[in-house]
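Lab channel / #folding
Pinned by the channel admin:
"Please post every new chain as: sequence first, then the structure tokens as a reply. Keep commentary short and put observations after the output so the thread stays searchable."

First post following the new format, from NK:
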Amino acid sequence: MHPFAYVAPKTVDEAVAVLEKHGDRARPIAGGTDLLVQARGGRWDLDAVVDIKTIPELVSIDNGSDGLTFGAGVPCYQLYENPELSSEYPGIMDAASLIGGIQIQSRAGLGGNLCNATPSGDGICPLIVHYATCVIAGPSGRRELPVEDFCTGPGQNALGSGEMLVSLKLPKPGSGFGAAYERFIPRNEMDIAVAGVAASVDLDSSGNIAKARVALASVGPTPILAEAAGGELAGKSADDESAIAAAGAAAAAAASPISDMRGTIEQRRHLVEVLTKRMVSKAIERARS
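Reply from TO:
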């Protein structure tokens, strides 16, 4: 592996300056659980690694009246060990507790999982169904982008030259909100999803689904927001089993999987349909509780 400089900036502006100077030969590091493996594998020839955990804004958590904002460097365990966050953002906690083992979760976070832009990334779809927004900083200042628009291809994201993910913003859930995420893996020793589904619902005072979101992992070149699946649920009773079944079928139709060593196209579509029905039902159960 090519020798590189380790940079520990104290502010976002300092980090952006280093990233702008080195271009593609510099990368931010949060947990390092993906970056270092990929650097050793020759994906990048780096001159600098920028440690974002030395920047206070990138390791902070703010759960206010308007919603939750957490830095791109916040590790998973700090999310799921917080009782208040676990109650309000259940789909996020499903993902944070799944990414690797406890050793990985003490370093890695949802910010790095998102920036890695792997189609099977467990943290991305739960962020989508929680209506999360990316806060991005770069040489031209700051901008915001919905999470569903962040991944542009396998291992590729919307960050431009010199840009970095600063934080993730999630709106405050209403009293009738529920979300859930589940994946299917072939065995515990191969911890990569064959298919994964996140779902969220907002129930109105009458017990109907005011709006819903379904997002799919590992069944396309990027995580997929299955808008048709959410559309099958909106305006329907939360007890309408036919609407939940229609959402599952619509999600399967939205998937664009491939066959590989972990599963076939047919298997993945079937898994999406089954998982969608299961996650919608679980989201409804959580919304009611």
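NK: The domain at 177-288 is CATH 3.30.390.50 (Enolase-like; domain 1).
TO: also worth noting, The CA atoms of residues 59 and 74 lie 5 Å apart.
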